[in-house]
Design brief:
The protein is α+β, with helices and mostly antiparallel strands. The chain contains 25 helices and 19 strands. Strand 10 and strand 11 form a beta hairpin. The radius of gyration is 25 Å and the shape is globular.
Length: 673
C-alpha cells in the first residue's frame, strides 16, 4: 500500500446518499491510523504451484485446492490462487455472475511487489472465516494493476473521490454493473480498540446491500456521474497560450517546495520525482538558471546517498518513508530505475560529475544482471518482502558486517555507510527498531583512490554474502510500456556514455517487443511464459514510440524510425479524441468501463498524453512530416489549462511543451522512414 493511504484519517463505514449534488455520509466513522498495521509473518509469495499440464487439467473454478486465478499468468494473481476466497479475474464471467446472483462485487486491486497487499492477503484473504463472508455476500474480483492499468485508473479515481486518498491494495465495492459505492485501501482483519476490522466492514456492507439498496444505488449512480464528468472535463483555456512563461512559472513553483536540506520536494514520504528532474534538466540547458541546477543536484545527490539507493547492488527502491531518503519501501520497480538512470545521465552531461555517471551505470548494470527475461525484454519488479519481512534481503546488523569483512574492514565500512550497532532501520508501521541497518552514505566518501578501491571490494564481498540469502519474489511478467521506458534509457545512455552494450540491450528488447508483443500491427500489454495478451494502452504506444526514436538516434538505423512512425500512427488511429484533443488511455475497441479516462498528469510514470506529444514532435523533426507536429499541438492545446493550474502534476507535459516551442521542421524533408 502506498504511503499516501497509510495515514488515512477516516474510513467511512456507512450507507451514502445523494443530497443537493454532494455526497452525504451517514452512520459510523472509524479511524484506521497506519500504526494498526499487523506484524504477522507473510506467507511465501512464490507459490509452489502445479506444473502447467496439471493446471490445464484443473476445472475452470480451480477445483478443491485453488480458485479461478490458477489459470492466470500474472504473478500477483497467482499469489492469490490458493486463497479460499472464490476469486475471479476481471472479465465478463465475473460481471455476469454478479448480475445473475444479484450480488455486489468486491474488487481488490494490487500488485506483486506491494508490501501491504501481502499483509492483507495473509491476514484476511488466506483465512477461511474471512473467505466465507466474502463468498457469501460478494462476487470477489482480483486485479493486477500492472496488467490492467485501465481498471486500476478508473477505480483508483473512485477511491480518491470517496476518501480523499488512494493506495494499494485498493478495495472497492461495486454494483453488478461496475459502479462503485464504497471504497478504502488496507484494513486489519479484526476490530481493535473500537476500530472496525475488515470482517466488520464486509458484514456491514453486505447488510447495506440487502436492506438499503435504494441508497446504495443512488450513491453508485451519483459517483459514476462524477467520475464521468471528471474524466471528460478539463480546466478552461488560459490567456497566454503555449509559452515559455508556463515553464518558468512551473519551475519557480517547484523551487518554493524544494527541500534544500534533504533534496526532493515537500515532506515525507518522498517519491523519486522522475518527470520533474527531466523538466528541470531541460530548462537548465535552456536558461542556465542556477536555482534549477541546485534542485537537480540536491535531489540526485540525496537520493544516491540515501537508503533508497541500493548501495551494494545498484538500482533504487520504490520510495522513501522519511524526508532524508534513508528508510525505503524496498520494492524495486523497472519503471523507477529506467527513469532515474536517464536522469543521472542527463545531469552527468550537464555537470561532468562522474558520480552521476557511476550511479547511472550501476543502475543500468543492475537491470542487466537481475531483471532480464530469457525470451527477451525485462521483468517488472522485485518484491519488498522476503521470509515474511519487508527489507530483510537488504538490511544488515552490525555483527553481520563485521563477520563478513573482518574487524578492521568491517568497522571502516560501517563508518562509511552509516551502520550503527543498535541499527538505524525503524519499522514504519510500528516504530520499532529491529537492530538492522539500511546502508547509506551519511557524508560523501573521502580518501584517496586506494581507500575507495578497498570500499568497492568490501561492497563486492557483501553483495556475494547477500546473494546467498533467500531472495524476494521477482515479478517476471514483461510489460510493454515499462520495457519501452527501459529501452529508451538504455539507448540514451549507450549513446551519451559511449557504452555500446547498452544500445545492444535496447535493440534486443525492442526486437523482442516487435516480434512477440505486436501481432497484426497492434501492441499487446503483457508477456509471461510464452504468452502475450491484453490490448495495450496509450502508455505502451507512446513510450514505445519514444524508445524507438531513441534507438534510431543512438544507432543511426532508420528501421527504428520507421517502426516509431508506425507505432505513433497506430496510436493516433485508435486512441485520439477527435473532438476534445489529446488521447484516451484505452483504445477505441477496448472493453468498456464505466468511464473512458483521458489524463494529462504524471504518476509513477510520465503521462501517456505527454509522452505521445513528445514522440510526435520528435517524429516531425526527424521525418519532416508536419502532420505529427499538428497532432502534438492538439494534445498540448487540450491540456494547456492543466499545465497552468497544475504544474507540479504535469512536468512531462510541460517538458513536451518546451520541445514544441523549440521544434524545427526541416525545410527539405528527409527521406520518409
Amino acid at each position: 500500500m502506498q504511503k499516501v493511504s497509510y495515514r488515512m484519517k477516516r474510513q467511512l463505514l456507512a450507507v451514502m446518499i445523494l443530497t443537493a449534488g454532494t455526497v452525504a455520509i451517514i452512520l459510523l466513522s472509524f479511524v484506521f491510523p497506519r500504526e494498526d498495521a499487523a506484524e504477522n509473518n507473510m506467507s511465501p509469495h512464490a507459490l509452489d504451484l502445479p506444473d502447467p499440464e496439471a493446471i490445464d487439467a484443473l476445472p475452470a473454478d480451480g477445483g478443491d485446492e485453488f480458485n479461478r486465478l490458477i489459470h492466470e499468468e500474472s504473478p500477483y494473481l497467482l499469489q492469490h490462487a490458493a486463497n479460499p476466497v472464490d476469486w475471479y479475474p476481471w472479465g465478463p464471467e465475473a460481471l455476469a455472475a454478479a448480475a445473475a446472483q444479484d450480488k455486489p462485487i468486491f474488487l481488490s486491486v494490487g500488485y506483486s511487489a506491494c508490501h501491504w497487499c501481502h499483509v492483507m492477503e495473509t491476514e484476511s484473504f488466506s483465512r477461511q472465516d474471512v473467505a466465507d463472508i466474502i463468498n457469501a455476500h460478494f462476487i470477489p474480483i482480483k486485479v493486477d494493476r500492472e496488467e490492467r492499468p485501465d481498471v486500476d485508473q478508473v477505480y483508483m479515481l473512485a477511491t480518491q473521490l470517496m476518501t480523499g486518498r488512494g493506495g494499494w491494495p485498493n478495495s472497492l465495492w461495486l454494483t453488478p454493473d461496475g459502479k462503485p459505492w464504497f471504497a478504502g485501501t488496507y484494513w486489519p482483519r479484526e476490530d481493535s480498540a473500537g476500530r472496525a476490522g475488515f470482517k466488520t466492514i464486509l458484514t456491514t456492507l453486505g447488510e447495506a446491500w440487502r436492506t438499503k439498496r435504494d441508497e446504495v444505488n443512488a450513491q453508485a449512480d451519483h459517483l459514476a456521474n462524477v467520475m464521468q464528468q471528471y474524466a471528460a472535463g478539463r480546466p478552461g483555456p488560459t490567456a497566454g497560450g503555449l509559452s515559455w512563461k508556463l515553464l518558468t512559472d512551473a519551475t519557480d513553483g517547484l523551487y518554493k517546495s524544494f527541500d534544500k536540506a534533504n533534496g526532493g520536494f515537500g515532506d515525507a514520504p518522498k517519491f523519486p520525482p522522475h518527470s520533474t528532474l527531466r523538466l528541470l534538466a531541460a530548462q537548465y540547458v535552456r536558461t542556465r538558471d542556477a536555482k534549477l541546477l541546485e534542485m537537480l543536484t540536491g535531489t540526485l545527490d540525496a537520493m544516491a546517498a540515501g537508503g533508497m539507493h541500493d548501495q551494494l547492488g545498484g538500482g533504487f527502491h520504490r520510495y522513501s518513508t522519511d524526508e532524508r531518503w534513508l528508510l525505503p519501501h524496498f520494492e524495486k520497480m523497472l519503471y523507477d530505475n529506467a527513469q532515474l538512470a536517464r536522469a543521472y545521465v542527463e545531469v552527468y552531461l550537464i555537470t561532468g560529475n562522474e558520480s552521476y555517471r557511476q550511479t547511472a551505470v550501476d543502475t543500468l548494470d543492475w537491470v542487466l544482471r537481475e531483471m532480464p527475461d530469457d525470451a527477451g525484454g525485462f521483468h517488472s519488479a522485485i518484491d519488498a518482502d522476503s521470509q515474511g519481512e519487508e527489507g530483510k534481503f537488504y538490511v544488515w546488523t552490525y555483527r553481520e558486517i563485521i563477520d563478513a569483512l573482518g574487524d578492521a574492514d568491517g568497522k571502516e565500512f560501517c563508518r562509511a555507510y552509516g551502520v550503527e550497532k543498535g541499527g538505524n532501520f525503524r519499522d514504519e508501521a510500528t516504530g520499532t527498531k529491529p537492530g538492522t541497518n539500511v546502508l547509506h552514505l551519511p557524508k560523501p566518501l573521502d580518501g584517496d583512490d586506494k581507500q575507495r578501491g578497498r570500499l568497492a571490494e568490501m561492497r563486492t564481498k557483501l553483495l556475494a554474502v547477500r546473494a546467498k540469502r533467500i531472495w524476494p519474489h521477482i515479478d517476471d511478467k514483461v510489460l510493454t510500456g515499462w520495457n519501452a521506458l527501459m529501452i529508451g534509457s538504455f539507448a540514451y545512455a549507450g549513446k551519451h556514455l559511449d557504452e555500446p552494450r547498452y544500445v545492444q540491450a535496447a535493440q534486443k528488447a525492442a526486437d523482442f517487443l516487435l516480434a512477440k508483443m505486436r501481432p497484426n500491427g497492434r501492441l499487446l500489454r503483457t508477456y509471461r511464459r510464452g504468452e502475450a495478451k491484453l490490448d495495450a494502452y496509450l502508455d505502451d504506444y507512446a513510450f514505445f514510440a519514444e524508445a524507438l526514436i531513441e534507438l534510431h538516434i543512438a544507432s543511426g538505423d532508420k528501421r527504428w524510425l520507421s517502426e516509431a512512425a508506425a507505432t505513433a500512427d497506430a496510436m493516433t488511429v485508435h486512441f485520439r479524441d477527435a473532438k476534445g484533443g489529446g488521447f484516451y488511455f484505452t483504445s477505441d475497441d477496448a472493453d468498456e468501463l464505466i468511464t473512458r479516462m483521458k489524463d494529462p498528469t504524471d504518476r509513477a510514470i510520465p503521462a501517456g498524453n505527454a509522452a505521445a506529444a513528445a514522440a510526435l514532435i520528435r517524429l516531425a523533426e526527424l521525418t519532416g512530416d508536419e502532420k505529427y507536429l499538428t497532432e502534438a499541438k492538439s494534445v498540448l492545446d487540450a491540456f494547456e489549462g492543466y499545465m497552468q493550474r497544475m504544474p507540479s502534476a504535469t512536468s512531462s507535459m510541460l517538458l513536451a511543451a518546451g520541445e514544441y516551442l523549440t521544434a524545427t521542421i526541416p525545410t527539405a524533408a528527409p527521406t520518409a522512414p
